[in-house]
Structure formats: C-alpha cells, structure tokens
Design a protein that fits this description.
alpha/beta, Ferritin, Rossmann fold, globular, 9-stranded mixed β-sheet, 3 domains, about 475 residues, single chain
Length: about 475
C-alpha cells in the first residue's frame, strides 16, 4: 500500500484496509449464516459480495477494479436501504469510508492477501484479532489518531475491577476503536458465558457511541472480529449533542467504561446542552454525562487527566456534583508515560458508584517497574504491572484495604477544605527539594533576561543581513 500514490499516511492506510477487512469478514459470516439459518439473505447485493468480485485471485484488476469500486461498490453501499440491523451496520460503515488507492493492480494484491484469511476458522480469526489489535496500537503513531486507542492493560484492569456480567447494560459513550467493549466481552466469556443464551444476553446489553468516522469503522469491524453478528448498537453519533436532561431513566445503564477524549474542545453550542456545567472541554462534559447515564447502584471506571482533578471554576462544581451523586471510592494515579507517544500527561482511573455520596477516597499510586525508566512503545504497560493494585483492592466490597507506600485515604471533609481539589500527592513520598524559592526566582529572572538579550542580538544580525 505504501507504493500507492493515493494513500497518505498510516491513518489512511488503516482506513483503506478496514473497509476491505469489513467486507471479507461480513461475507464469511454471511456464508456461515446461509448454512445455519434457512432463508437468510445477505444485506449486500450479490454482485457486490466479496466472493463475487474479490475472492478469485485472478479476478478483475487495474482500471476495471478501480472503476467497479468507485462507481458501483461504494455508491451502492453508501445508500444501502437500512431494512435490517445488519444492513444498517453495512451502510453506517460505508457512509464515511473512502477508497484512497489509485492503482487497481496494487489493490488487487492487497485484496488477495486479505482473501487468504478464513474468518469462519476460530484459530485464524483469533490470530487475525491479535494482528488487528496491533494495528490499532500502531495508530498511536498516526498523528491524532492515537486518541482512539487505550492501552490494553489499562482497559483490562478497569474491566477486571468492575467485573461486568451478562445482562448488565454496559456502555462506552466515546468508544473509539472498541477496546473496552472487546475487553468486557472477553472477561464475560471467560467467566460467565456458559450457554448460547448467555452470549445472546451479553450482546443485547452492550451500548456504544463514537463521533468520528474512522474509529467508528474500526470499532464496528472489531466487533465483527469478536463474533458479534449485528453490531448495530455501535452508533455513529456525538453523545454530547443531546441535552443532558433528555437522557431518560429507561436509557440509563449499569456500567460505564470509558476513556473520553481530553484536551479537546467541543463545537460552539454543545455547552448549552449542559446548563449546570457550561464548558466546551470534552472530558468535563463526558464526566457530567456519565454521572447522568448511571442507574442507581450503577458503577463506572473512567480515564481522566490530572487537569480534571485540580482544575477550578466549572471543574470544581463538576467534582462537587460527582462526590454528592456518587461514591468515588478509588483513584488510581498513572505515570505520564502510560499513554506515550500520544499524550505525555498524568492520567487517572476514577472508579465510582451511583448509590451514596462519597465519604472517603482511596488513592493508589502506580509506578513504572524498577527495571525501566518509563513506559514506551517497545516497553508498554502490561496487566501484570497492575497486579499489586489488584491485590490491594480487597474484593468486590473493597474490604481490608490498608495505607502503605502506594496507598492513602482522604476524607470528604479534607476534600471540601481543599476546595474539591482531588490532585492529592502521595503523603508517604517526601517531596523533592528544589531549593530556596527566592533563589530559584532570581535564577529564572536572570535566564529570561539572557534569552531576551540573545533575541535582540539575533534580530540585529538578521536586520543587518537583510539590508545588505
């Protein structure tokens, strides 16, 4: 694909690959459903099914293939009548998909490689699932696309501690590529899914929304890979575009697992949907929404940046609302390098339940293993790195927790005294001595004066050079 002049960068390459993966996976599923379900008909017209135009390695290529893709396949699937949930899935994927490749010969080579995978083979599907996970991981290098991927260890730990079960309605309102959903399904299949009815109950209880086209397509394909036949519950929408009060009781959920995008701003007018918390900062709006979405006794695990913990103004009002409405029982503090290279800021895992106001918050400080200086692409965080936190956690009711060099507890009274600043450092670690503040300030002033002098000198040199 790198030889093709039409594809620019890894994000476009992945987008191109995924609509092809999607068509191959759904065609393999269709073949299986036609065999097991009398009267089943694929939502994709026969001449557009993978087996009709792509499966033969000696099939159409070059300009003929390009013409077929651009004038028949894409226009038809973008306008496919949404008569069934499965048809809606196909249309939703292709509505925002594009064919970036310009060479029909190169495209035929890619198609032939994809055709080699049999997605009806459990072993091949599992192997391909691992490859797909790595592709999503590699998105961290594809510009802003890294925002769609949460490290597997983080999603697995959050799912493990919430322990979802089939029948509990589980939602990710900013689902990205679907990492929390796949981890939750894996968790439930390993522990609780024993019969076909359990699998059906689990799938019927999943909810997800994603605003951007590429991650929505990635997520939908991810669900198909994880044996979900009709992922029509993965909605392509902006969850924040609805007024907060319009979310009714019958839409509330038992569990929210999410890493809402942070550092971004929503478009003008979105803040009017949140009259109590008028802000355009995405992470704050999602936190307000998640509190609203939870049923009584519902529980949540959410990734938030340090700024959400210490911020003032509307952030203070939002934190007070969270502590009054929910029991924020645990904050796991992660080091800056967990989300590198996409983000190099401190992040936190907030665990809370909507049943009683917060009385105490337990903090756990996660540290990079002593064998390395920081997490990186080649040495990422792994689930076993969080085993010490899981061992300290204390079971479903969190009984028997003790303070230690990594753990400390703060009362709601102390939180109030701090003006709801939740950015509380580990009291068991001595603060680093940076020296006398007055001397540091003098040094900073001298350094700034030196920089200003150098800038003036450079300006004079440039002026002289331009006037010669």
């Amino acid at each position: 694909m790198r030889k093709d002049v039409g594809v620019d960068g890894d994000a476009q390459r992945l987008s191109q690959l995924v609509w092809m993966f999607f068509l191959k996976i759904i065609d393999d599923q269709d073949e299986a459903l036609e065999f097991t379900h009398d009267g089943y008909t694929s939502p994709i017209p026969k001449h557009l099914q993978w087996r009709a135009w792509a499966a033969d390695p000696e099939g159409i290529t070059g300009d003929d293939l390009q013409g077929f893709i651009n004038t028949q396949l894409f226009p038809t699937l973008k306008e496919l009548p949404a008569t069934t949930p499965r048809a809606r899935v196909v249309r939703s994927v292709f509505e925002d998909a594009y064919n970036y490749m310009k060479s029909g010969q190169l495209m035929r080579q890619v198609i032939n490689k994809i055709s080699e995978v049999d997605f009806n083979s459990l072993t091949e599907r599992q192997h391909f699932g691992d490859i797909y996970e790595q592709l999503l991981n590699d998105l961290q290098n594809a510009g802003n696309a890294g925002e769609y991927y949460t490290p597997r260890a983080v999603t697995s730990f959050m799912v493990q501690q919430l322990d979802p079960r089939p029948g509990e309605i589980l939602m990710d309102p900013a689902c990205g590529t679907g990492g929390f959903l796949t981890c939750a399904m894996r968790h439930m299949r390993d522990r609780y899914v024993k019969r076909p009815e359990d699998e059906a109950t689990m799938q019927a209880s999943l909810r997800a929304v994603e605003k951007k086209p590429l991650p929505h397509m990635l997520c939908t394909t991810n669900m198909l890979l994880h044996n979900v036949e009709e992922p029509s519950w993965v909605k392509h929408d902006n969850t924040l575009a609805r007024p907060l009060i319009s979310w009714t009781k019958d839409e509330r959920v038992d569990i929210v697992l999410s890493n809402p995008p942070f550092g971004g701003k929503e478009e003008d007018g979105i803040e009017n949907n949140f009259p109590q918390f008028k802000t355009r900062e995405t992470a704050d709006l999602f936190l307000a929404l998640i509190i609203r979405l939870l049923k009584t006794n519902g529980r949540a695990a959410v990734v938030l940046p340090d700024g959400s913990l210490f911020g003032e103004g509307i952030k203070t009002r939002l934190k007070e609302h969270l502590l009054n409405e929910c029991n924020l029982h645990t904050i796991v503090r992660l080091p800056n390098s967990v989300f590198k290279p996409y983000a190099s800021i401190g992040t936190n895992l907030l665990f809370f339940e909507k049943k009683s106001p917060t009385q105490d918050i337990w903090y756990w400080e996660h540290r990079v293993p002593e064998t390395q200086k920081a997490y990186s692409m080649t040495k990422p965080i792994r689930l076993e790195h969080l085993d010490d936190c899981a061992a300290w956690w204390g079971g479903p009711s969190r009984e028997g927790r003790e303070e230690g060099d990594r753990a400390w507890k703060v009362s709601i009274d102390e939180i109030r005294k701090r003006g709801f600043n939740l950015d509380i450092k580990n009291p068991h670690v001595e603060a680093e001595d940076w020296g006398d503040p007055e001397i540091l300030l003098n040094d900073l002033t001298k350094a700034e004066a030196s920089v200003e002098s150098l800038r003036a000198e450079l300006k004079a040199i440039l002026t002289e050079a331009l006037t010669r």
